[in-house]
Description:
Elements: E1 5-9, H1 16-19, H2 51-61, H3 65-68, E2 77-83, H4 94-104, E3 123-127, E4 148-152, E5 158-162, H5 187-196, E6 203-205, E7 209-211, H6 212-217, H7 220-230, E8 249-251, E9 266-268
Parallel strand pairs: 1-2, 2-3
Antiparallel strand pairs: 4-5, 6-9, 7-8
Amino acid sequence: MHFKFLYLLLCLIGGDASLSLVPSSIGDCSELIGLVQRKPGRGDTTMSVSCSDKIARWNVVGVQGALLSYFLRPVYLHSVTVGRSPYVSEDVCLVKQLKRSLFERVTPLSNELIKPFEVNKPIFCAAPVPPKEFQHSETAQATLTCGYSICWNKSGLHEVILGTTGRKQGTSSKGAVYPSTESLLCKKRFLETFVSLRHECKIRCSSNEVSYRELKDRADEYSSASKLFKGRPPFRNWLLKPVNLENFSIIRNEGNYPSGNSGNSCDFQG
């Protein structure tokens, strides 16, 4: 079975792809074009890079991430479609901006990547201006994005997530530590699901705890491609999150996991 992943946005993505569209009245951004940008936040400074940088990275390592790379070959985007803004001149070639930011910045890696990884070139498309119901008001003093995210899955279930905390909607300040407030998309749940599928990729762990960080690092091919990407300009200043955020573990159930030698090591056989 063959799938194609299509990426659709109602407005131009933030970061490098939109820098050349910044009005001169706001300032000169020419020196920043091509560089990694920090994603802006409403309050505290974020630890995330812009959407332009993330999608450029997807065109090298895929969208599946490190853990799914144990099971899947790199999953690349087939197309990226962006809706035009009513406040940007039609003379501006959005497709050209997307191609430069999301593809041409990573083309120097083409001869350095090792299969199955490669530099992916999706189809870039510019959609018509969205209906007024989906446009930001021209008279608004500031453009504010929604503080919630709706996450859907194949079963038809969905979660409404608070963007500032990553917890489910309705979570009180006192209940934020309870497992019932955790999203199915949080890293802890990812780890639990991955460990439940360990037999599919022949994982043998001799430790009673499985580290999320270690499992990611042991995805050798993915890790090598990711390090190559972050080690080349213009991505050398990629924002790295604190290691302690991924050093958590879950306790293994000895009755359900394959036994191994003594010690705190894991063997992975793809």
